[in-house]
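Input/output pair, single chain:
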Amino acid sequence: MANPLPTSLPDGEMTVLTRGLRKHYGAVTALNDLALQVPTGAVYLLVGPNGAGKSTTIKVLLDLVRADAGTASVFGLDALTDGPTVRANIGYVPEHHDWGYAWMRVGQLLAHHARYFPSWDSEYASRLARAFDVREDRKVGGLSKGQSRRVHLIMALAHRPPLLLLDEPTDGLDPIMRDETLGILADHLAEVAPTVLISTHHVAEVETMADYVGAMRDGALVAQLSVDGLRRSLHRYRAEVPDGWRGAPALNGTVLRRTEGPREVQWTVWGDESSVTEQFTRAGATVSDIATLSLDEATLALINPRREQV
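Output:
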């Protein structure tokens, strides 16, 4: 069945662009013809279940993982052949925090990291450390997951790069620090206006920041579109149905999620609102409510592995 969801953005300036990316780990397919488009200046949210290929995608952009086929460009540069230049202009927060400098103190690590970035702002780094409540005299090897995440954020932000690659940036943070971190990140985006690619399971946290969404499953994009376009075209319909209702076959392939009762159904459907309503009516149902989904609800529907038959 053809995918009804858009997977390609309109032409425009792209900071990140991949074509036909493939990556296998033995028999496991991590990336499958991935064609990612991240518009310049946008906040792009990459979502998907564990194992969908999100972290592998980010690592390919950094040339930390080599794809088996396809191309990846960042700032118009080949991520493979121009890796050092690309990485010099990226702030990266990795999914895992396996430190290679466990013996260093945090202040030493930040000073070491700063040497690789001519635009490093020591005053800004110190301000971020205070905001994140990071003690620079602590040994890196003794940091908790949440403390490590905060150090990574300082390292990613303090040189004010034009691109941020954030892989689960709030993972491990307690609720108070998570809220503080999102506020710091929002302030940084307002001041610097970088392009941002965020991979996260905590979609609700970044809903107000996101401009675009890419939904991945099994190494491929099942949807790629603007948040505004998603909100216009994906709705939850509540409809009253008669006894013995046989469904609405014309909507096959566009129903992403469904729940049903004896006299009422709730379907999450992709498509033009008036056209979807018309198909319900033609099938003998009466639409009683049409709801716009939160971004969290919408992304869960996008990565649903089934297209419901109705």
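The domain at 233-302 is CATH 3.30.70 (Alpha-Beta Plaits). The first strand starts at residue 14 and ends at 25.
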